[in-house]
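Changelog-linked ticket: adenosine-5'-triphosphate example.
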Amino acid sequence: MNGLFPLGILGGTFDPIHFGHLRLAEELAQQLDLAEVRFIPSGRPWHRDAPGATPPQRLEMVRLAISSSPHFRLDGREASSGAPGYTVETLANLRQELGADQPLCLLLGADAFLGLATWHRWHELFGLAHIAVAQRPGFSLLAEQMDDVLRVEAEARMSSDPQQLQATPCGKLLACPITPLDISATRIRSAIKAGRSPRYLLPDAVVDYIQTHNLYR
Ligand code: ATP
């Protein structure tokens, strides 16, 4: 054990940030003894349409959402770069900044994990960080839901002991139960577009920001 608490990394489009993201970060921070969770909003995503809000607006919504949590931090490196922002490159940068010994832990919802084998240079991710996968309603983490390549990697790396994340800087996979919240940014955007209120699916400060800036109409 090297005694360093892992740094959690939660990437996402956050278009907008909602309570599904925030509970994931809060519950994994506790389960895994994370030193902090870095929220890293993406730049222009490579795998989907352009977000409804601009990168500065998505950054601001995350800032508003996490401002009262001392163990959450906003990291604007991807959103301010203008490039797509590949996770493998972000992790390599963090590894360089924080040193070889610091455990890093990428936090993913089950849907994101099931698509991992399509990510740019995905095989390198485990050489840079651990991965903790949180349950998400509608997505099963059973092995038969995974592509063959992902299943092989998952079986080799799966651990059930959060302490393992402190024992090594990278390379383990953990599946973590969290309070299931069936909330998605897509459905929040659709509700707003249809003139329905999204309140109580995301922090009030973010709802107010969306209204003030007339987003997702
Ligand atoms: P969209 O609907 O626009 O695709 P989203 O709600 O899935 O967005 P993202 O910003 O794409 O949100 O997600 C960032 C990360 O948070 C991903 O790893 C995703 O799996 C996870 N996540 C998002 N919502 C939830 C949720 N309700 N429960 C668990 N994990 C979630």
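Closing comment: Example verified and attached. Residues 12-15, 20-21, 24, 108-109, 111-112, 134, 136, 181, 183-186 surround adenosine-5'-triphosphate (CB under 6 Å). Residues 7-182 form a domain with the Rossmann fold fold (CATH 3.40.50.620).
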